[in-house]
Amino acid sequence: MSLINILEKDLSHKKSYEGLSESEAKERIRQYGTNELQAKKSVHPFTIFTDQFKDVLVMILLACTAISLFMGEYTEAIAISCIVLANAIMGFAQELKTEKTLEALKNMAAPVAKVYRNGNLCKLPTSEIVCDDVIMVESGDKIPADAVIMESISLDVDESILTGESVPVSKQQHKNEEVQNELNKSYLIHMGTTVTKGRAKAKVIATGMNTQMGKIADMLNEIEDEQTPLQKKLEQLGKYIAIGCLLICAIVASAGILRGEPVLDMLITGVSLSVAAVPEGLPAIVTIALAIAVNRMVKRKALIRKLHAVETLGCASVICSDKTGTLTQNKMTVKKVFTLDGTLEVSGDGYEKAGDFKSDGQRVNIRNDETAQMMMEIAILCNNAEIIDSENSFQSRDRAVNMAKGTHKVLGDPTESALLVMAGKAGVTSKSLETEYEKIDEIPFDSTRKCMSVIAQTKTGKKVVFCKGAYDIIIEKCTYAKQNGGQSGITQAIKQKISRANNQMAGSALRVLGFAYKEIVAGESKENYEKGLTFVGLAGMIDPPRKEAQQAVKTCIRAGIKPVMITGDHKETAVAIAKQVGIFHDGDKVISGMELDRMDENELAKAVTHTTVFARVSPNHKLKIVRAFKKRGHIVAMTGDGVNDAPAIKEADIGVSMGITGTDVTKEASEVILLDDNFATLVVAVEEGRVIYGNIRKFIRYLLSCNIGEVLTMFLGILMGLPVILLPIQILLVNLVTDGFPAIALGLEPAEKDIMKRQPRKASSGIFSEGLLTTIIFRGCLIGLTTLAVFVTLYKMTMSYDLARTGAFLTLVITQLIHVFECKSETKNIFTVPYFSNMKLILAVTASALTVFATIYVDALRPIFSTVPLEKSHLVIVMGYSMIAPIISSVVGMFFNNKK
Ligand code: ATP
Question: Cα 688–691–696 angle (5° rounding)?
Answer without folding.
Answer: 125
